[in-house]
Amino acid sequence: MRVRRAELSDLDDLVALEDATFDSDRMSRVQYRRHLDSGSASILVASANHRRFLGTAVVFFRKGSRVARLYSLASRPEARGKGVGSALLAAAERTARQRGCTELRLEVRTDNASAIRLYERLGYQRFARIDGYYEDGADAWRYARPLDAATR
Protein backbone atom coordinates (compact mmCIF):
# COMPACT_ATOMS: atom_id res chain seq x y z
CA MET A 1 0.00 0.00 0.00
CA ARG A 2 1.22 3.47 -0.87
CA VAL A 3 0.23 6.69 0.92
CA ARG A 4 1.06 10.01 -0.70
CA ARG A 5 -0.03 13.62 -0.64
CA ALA A 6 -3.00 14.27 -2.93
CA GLU A 7 -2.58 16.37 -6.07
CA LEU A 8 -4.98 18.49 -8.08
CA SER A 9 -5.35 15.63 -10.58
CA ASP A 10 -6.88 13.57 -7.73
CA LEU A 11 -9.79 15.97 -7.23
CA ASP A 12 -12.45 13.87 -9.01
CA ASP A 13 -11.45 10.73 -7.08
CA LEU A 14 -11.40 12.59 -3.77
CA VAL A 15 -14.92 13.93 -4.27
CA ALA A 16 -16.21 10.54 -5.48
CA LEU A 17 -14.85 8.76 -2.40
CA GLU A 18 -16.24 11.47 -0.10
CA ASP A 19 -19.69 11.16 -1.66
CA ALA A 20 -19.60 7.35 -1.51
CA THR A 21 -18.44 7.27 2.12
CA PHE A 22 -20.39 9.92 4.00
CA ASP A 23 -24.13 10.63 4.18
CA SER A 24 -23.62 14.09 5.67
CA ASP A 25 -20.85 16.47 6.70
CA ARG A 26 -19.20 15.98 3.31
CA MET A 27 -16.39 18.11 1.96
CA SER A 28 -17.38 19.71 -1.32
CA ARG A 29 -15.34 19.90 -4.51
CA VAL A 30 -14.67 23.58 -3.73
CA GLN A 31 -13.42 22.74 -0.23
CA TYR A 32 -11.15 19.98 -1.52
CA ARG A 33 -9.80 22.29 -4.20
CA ARG A 34 -9.06 24.99 -1.62
CA HIS A 35 -7.37 22.53 0.77
CA LEU A 36 -5.21 21.02 -1.97
CA ASP A 37 -3.57 24.45 -2.36
CA SER A 38 -3.57 25.35 1.32
CA GLY A 39 -0.59 25.44 3.62
CA SER A 40 -2.92 24.72 6.53
CA ALA A 41 -4.10 21.33 5.25
CA SER A 42 -2.66 18.06 4.08
CA ILE A 43 -4.75 15.62 2.06
CA LEU A 44 -3.36 12.09 1.90
CA VAL A 45 -4.46 9.22 -0.33
CA ALA A 46 -3.84 5.49 -0.01
CA SER A 47 -3.73 3.21 -3.02
CA ALA A 48 -2.46 -0.22 -3.96
CA ASN A 49 -1.04 -1.31 -7.29
CA HIS A 50 -1.76 2.11 -8.84
CA ARG A 51 -5.51 1.44 -8.60
CA ARG A 52 -8.16 3.89 -7.52
CA PHE A 53 -8.04 5.25 -4.04
CA LEU A 54 -8.52 2.89 -1.16
CA GLY A 55 -8.83 5.75 1.30
CA THR A 56 -8.09 9.34 2.19
CA ALA A 57 -7.18 11.40 5.23
CA VAL A 58 -7.50 15.15 5.68
CA VAL A 59 -5.35 16.84 8.33
CA PHE A 60 -5.67 20.49 9.34
CA PHE A 61 -3.01 22.68 10.91
CA ARG A 62 -3.48 26.00 12.69
CA LYS A 63 -0.77 28.63 12.62
CA GLY A 64 0.94 28.89 15.99
CA SER A 65 -0.58 25.63 17.28
CA ARG A 66 1.27 22.40 17.93
CA VAL A 67 -1.99 20.42 17.69
CA ALA A 68 -3.01 18.95 14.35
CA ARG A 69 -6.58 17.87 13.62
CA LEU A 70 -7.55 14.78 11.67
CA TYR A 71 -10.62 16.21 9.98
CA SER A 72 -11.55 13.18 7.93
CA LEU A 73 -10.55 9.55 7.46
CA ALA A 74 -12.35 7.56 4.78
CA SER A 75 -11.83 4.18 3.18
CA ARG A 76 -13.71 2.24 0.56
CA PRO A 77 -15.92 -0.50 2.02
CA GLU A 78 -13.94 -3.21 0.24
CA ALA A 79 -10.71 -1.88 1.75
CA ARG A 80 -11.87 -1.84 5.37
CA GLY A 81 -10.08 -4.18 7.73
CA LYS A 82 -7.05 -4.33 5.42
CA GLY A 83 -4.82 -1.73 7.05
CA VAL A 84 -5.87 1.30 5.02
CA GLY A 85 -7.00 3.31 8.04
CA SER A 86 -3.88 2.39 10.00
CA ALA A 87 -1.61 3.38 7.11
CA LEU A 88 -3.39 6.70 6.62
CA LEU A 89 -3.25 7.47 10.35
CA ALA A 90 0.47 6.68 10.47
CA ALA A 91 1.05 9.00 7.49
CA ALA A 92 -1.11 11.73 9.09
CA GLU A 93 0.94 11.45 12.28
CA ARG A 94 4.23 11.64 10.35
CA THR A 95 2.99 14.69 8.47
CA ALA A 96 1.93 16.38 11.72
CA ARG A 97 5.28 15.63 13.38
CA GLN A 98 7.13 17.02 10.34
CA ARG A 99 5.17 20.25 10.83
CA GLY A 100 6.22 20.46 14.48
CA CYS A 101 2.97 19.20 15.99
CA THR A 102 3.03 17.31 19.26
CA GLU A 103 -0.55 16.03 19.26
CA LEU A 104 -3.17 14.81 16.78
CA ARG A 105 -6.84 15.24 17.65
CA LEU A 106 -10.00 14.00 15.97
CA GLU A 107 -13.74 13.68 16.35
CA VAL A 108 -15.69 10.51 15.60
CA ARG A 109 -19.39 9.69 15.68
CA THR A 110 -20.32 7.95 18.91
CA ASP A 111 -22.05 5.25 16.84
CA ASN A 112 -19.04 4.51 14.58
CA ALA A 113 -17.81 1.43 16.45
CA SER A 114 -15.27 0.32 13.82
CA ALA A 115 -13.54 3.72 13.71
CA ILE A 116 -13.53 3.94 17.51
CA ARG A 117 -11.86 0.50 17.70
CA LEU A 118 -9.22 1.62 15.20
CA TYR A 119 -8.42 4.84 17.04
CA GLU A 120 -8.27 3.18 20.45
CA ARG A 121 -6.14 0.30 19.12
CA LEU A 122 -3.67 2.87 17.82
CA GLY A 123 -3.39 4.67 21.13
CA TYR A 124 -5.91 7.49 20.83
CA GLN A 125 -7.51 8.49 24.13
CA ARG A 126 -11.08 9.73 24.42
CA PHE A 127 -11.29 13.01 26.34
CA ALA A 128 -14.63 14.65 25.54
CA ARG A 129 -18.13 14.18 24.15
CA ILE A 130 -19.70 16.80 21.91
CA ASP A 131 -23.49 16.65 21.75
CA GLY A 132 -25.09 17.36 18.36
CA TYR A 133 -21.71 17.76 16.64
CA TYR A 134 -22.68 16.45 13.20
CA GLU A 135 -25.11 17.92 10.64
CA ASP A 136 -27.63 15.17 11.36
CA GLY A 137 -27.51 15.86 15.09
CA ALA A 138 -25.32 12.87 15.99
CA ASP A 139 -22.93 13.18 18.92
CA ALA A 140 -19.15 12.89 18.66
CA TRP A 141 -16.33 11.63 20.82
CA ARG A 142 -13.16 13.68 20.80
CA TYR A 143 -9.87 11.76 20.83
CA ALA A 144 -6.21 12.77 21.05
CA ARG A 145 -2.84 11.11 20.73
CA PRO A 146 0.53 12.61 21.65
CA LEU A 147 3.05 12.59 18.83
CA ASP A 148 6.62 12.01 19.84
CA ALA A 149 9.62 11.01 17.77
CA ALA A 150 9.21 7.37 18.76
CA THR A 151 5.60 6.97 17.58
CA ARG A 152 5.27 4.97 14.40
UniProtKB/TrEMBL annotation:
It comes from the Bacteria. Residues 1-148 form the N-acetyltransferase domain. It is an enzyme of class 2 (transferase). Keywords: Acyltransferase, Transferase. Its EC number is 2.3.1.-. One of its GO terms (molecular function) is acyltransferase activity. InterPro entries: Acyl_CoA_acyltransferase (IPR016181), GNAT_dom (IPR000182), YpeA/RimI_acetyltransf (IPR050680). This is GNAT family N-acetyltransferase.
